[in-house]
């Protein structure tokens, strides 16, 4: 039997960081198109986003594991959205002390100190829903096969092969 174990917290953090980074670039590109009709779709972010998203989603993962049996989905997403605002404000405030905060919401009507804005409440809520239902749930299903030997792409590593997180025997 193959030695199969869940991803480490560091591996999950890495996946969450890359996911958040990618979503940030795509969101800012879409926002630029919708607001300014910019057909170049310039998506932007900061290297700080890797730490911010990776850490935040790892914390939301912990929340999900504790709340999934206790709270309905929409309430969990509201909690995640509130967490997102608290995290964005906190990390923005810290980064601002070093003149390194990559965002400024001062031009929005409902901003607070330029660090957070209520205009993003719906996108953050939708992002929380997607994050839980697709990103976190599927990342928690991923497994490492410690005994797998590298082979040709698409070929099983030996007599046992993993299929959708389950050991498949031929």
UniProtKB/TrEMBL annotation:
The chain crosses the membrane at residues 12-31, 43-61, 73-95, 115-136. Residues 149-170 are annotated as: Disordered. Its main location: membrane. Keywords: Membrane, Transmembrane, Transmembrane helix. It is found in: Membrane. The keyword Transmembrane applies. InterPro entries: CmpB_TMEM229. It is a multi-pass membrane protein. Residues 154-163 have a biased composition (Low complexity). Belongs to the TMEM229 family. This is Transmembrane protein 229B.
